[in-house]
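RETRY 2/3 - previous attempt timed out on the joint model. Re-submitting the same 611-residue input unchanged.
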Amino acid sequence: MALEVNGKSIAVDEEGYLENRDDWNTDIAKAIAQEEGLDMSDSHWEVVNFLREYYDEYQIAPAVRVLTKSIGKKLGKDKGNSKYLYELFPYGPAKQACKIAGLPKPTGCV
Amino acid sequence: MAKANFDTPALQPHQETPDLPSVKPGAMQHLKTFPAKPLHNENIGYPGELVDGWQDKAVKRLGELVDGSQALRVFLDTCVKCGACTDKCHYFLGTEDPLNMPVARQDLLRSVYRRYYTFAGKHCPKLVGAKDFDKEMLDDWYNYFHQCSQCRRCSVFCPYGIDTAEISMAAREVMDSIGVGQKYCNEILAKVHKIGNNLGLPEPALVDTLEGLEEDVEEDTGVLVRFPVDQKGADVLLITPSADFFAEPHIDGLIGYAKVFHQAGIRWTLSSHASEAANFSLFIGSGDNLKKAAMRIREAALELGVKRIIVGECGHAWRVAYSFWNTLIGPFDFLDPKYPAPQHIVEFTYDLIQRGALTLDKEANDHRRITFHDSCNVARASRMGNIPGGQFILPREVIKAAANHFFDMAPDTIHEKTFCCGGGGGLLTDDLMELRVKGAMPRMQALQQVVEENGVNTLVAICAICKTQFAKTLPHYQFQGDMITSLHEVVGDAIQLGAKE
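RETRY 2/3 succeeded.
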């Protein structure tokens, strides 16, 4: 399967996650977000960028709690909760935001 | 994410259990879980893709499994088609597809067994319902043996005790052996072997997550509660599902365990080598992988020099631990014989409560009106504590010691007759969401009754699969997804830290 972005064909899996993380760029992120029915605002980018930084350091997406805490520290306590993240990413910050950030889907009993 | 393109079954008002459905042949024929990629299969010792001569090889593998398991042979030989199981499966009740009747699901494999391994089936197959293992049959196996959560409710009602789970596991092993694997299970199992847990959570991320939890708990309570990893000389090694490190409501259960250890003054540790209780090898019926994944736990226990092994809130892990560890990775003669090996975290907390070692303020849970979902692998495949039915009694007693408002669901839907959450047995994957939502219906029906009659607002479970499954499916039935709560979150909220210091 593939996603067409700027005339280039990008390999994705059955659910639209990038096959190769190195393919990622902001245009691809916007294209995935569009498929998800999301318009990328600055708030969305804050989350996506944090996910990518965390992944670079730890080779995995952060736990939801780690994510909310970090967002809370950066953007204020009223935003450091999963309700805020679910408003941004209705299908769940772990899965939907990871997809837009070009990270693999978290696996297991989550 | 695409919107759901299926209808959620309707719940009946003022009713404990679902009505017997009409029958809709082929209703779930379309649902095919994502196949494993070649690498997923190869990483756990199976051929990457459908092998040449797959038909003969599958039949041969089936023969080996039957020869190796008297139980499987009896299950295949003894069914008399009495029909007692037909309406006991949550997937049949929720999907109305007759191939989701346990007997029909079994017959997909039984008809092939008869064709190649019984006298009558070899010589006059049509007379005895014996069928060739052809492509159409393989496709039906793939679809319908991935619509069984191996919960074993049907076997409770079968007069011969035929265990559909064993048949479903055998079918998946046969398919894996010819290169037809399921992505969800096989990809995850490879991560356990390689990284140590289902999530693929490496040690530095685990340590970072746990440090964050220490900060959070200290901020909430003013008490430094430790979440140790790889601590040599600890008394207890805790083996818990990796979901406990990652997602809500699981992580609140982990906080609860830590508070219990803290107040009991027992030194405990997690292991980065064995940072996973789950063992999906069970779901695919793979003995080799089952042993390999379990062996990490023995290695970790020896390396850390612990005296006890305690298993966290994970349903099938407890089945593997309680029923199979001793033969797979025993003997546990290096552990302290004063304690059960292994021990369930609920059993551990229950014993502490009995001894008066925990100070619990029930009023801290007064906002919760609680019911308890018995998880299938705990309820029907293991025990807990030293009393008959302990796996039913202990969790309820722990909840009642920590909270004032507890209400059980209807008797036909709890204890050994519990309905599966709808996501067990390796089916907790988004590509099976239609099955998961429909299969949750019988549990939702029983839940609705206690919501209506008792104002229940909290559904407690002790299995990571159940917790995630309910978080995702409750909203389809107009319940709040965050009703689902870890048992040890209820305990953790009631513990008065500092009271014993």
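The domain at 2-100 of chain A is CATH 1.10.10.370 (Arc Repressor Mutant, subunit A). Closing ticket.
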